[in-house]
């Protein structure tokens, strides 16, 4: 099982905003959990991959790789 892209640009932008908010919350509250979740969300943003989308078989990515 490998990570194929399954997130489109609007989803990625939302993830980036969520990650920035989580990092800000982590700094404000000193929460390591918020840092960890924010880091995971940045990972999803960077690789255009969402584990929940993959489990559901959903994709919002317009790019279709050639086989």
Class inferred from helices and paired strands: mainly alpha
Our estimate of the beta-strand percent is: under 5%
Write down the secondary-structure element order: HHH
List unreliable stretches of 5+ residues: none
Mean pLDDT rating: 87
What is the helix fraction of residues, given as a range?
A: 55-70%
Distance between the termini: 16 Å
| Structure annotation, total helices | 3
- Biggest β-sheet strands, sense, barrel: none
How many strand segments?
0
Q: Rg from C-alpha positions?
A: 13 Å
What global shape is seen? Answer: elongated
Could you describe the 3D structure shown?
With about 70 residues, this protein is an all-alpha fold. The chain is about 65% helix and about 0% strand. The protein has 3 helices and no strands. It has helices at about 10-30, 30-45, 50-55. Helix 1 runs antiparallel to helix 2. The longest helix is centred in the first third of the chain and has 21 residues, at about 10-30.
Ordered list of secondary-structure elements with their pairings:
Layout: H1 9-29, H2 32-47, H3 51-56
Compact summary:
With 67 residues, the chain is mainly α. Helix content is 64%, strand content 0%. The protein is elongated, with a radius of gyration of 13 Å.
